[in-house]
Amino acid sequence: MTEARFDELIHPSTRLSLVATLAAADWAEFAFLKDRLRLSDSALSKQLTTLEEAGYVATERRLSGSRRKVRARLTGTGRDAFNGHIAALRAIVADATAPAEGPPV
Known about the structure:
By secondary structure, the protein is of the alpha+beta class. The protein has helices spanning 13-23, 30-37, 41-53, 76-97; strands spanning 28-29, 57-64, 67-74. The chain has a three-stranded antiparallel sheet with strand order 1-3-2.
């Protein structure tokens, strides 16, 4: 069972969407991420760099013909952080939707 841990680094919506997309794949190409998340090259690069510096994402740059291609994946640390964050969000939602105990106010 994953320990619920709210993660401030993952929580902003752009990073959460990025990490969720990476969680569903082994590796994801930069162009795919850019299109899926509707981000500019610079915005996606910034988010990937932030997550990479935290150890949550690994990137790989390679040549494909005459073009450089970048792809990314979650690291084990990133996957653990994502799973913990999702568990924390689920706990928050469960607490908010649980029936109140005691007499109504």
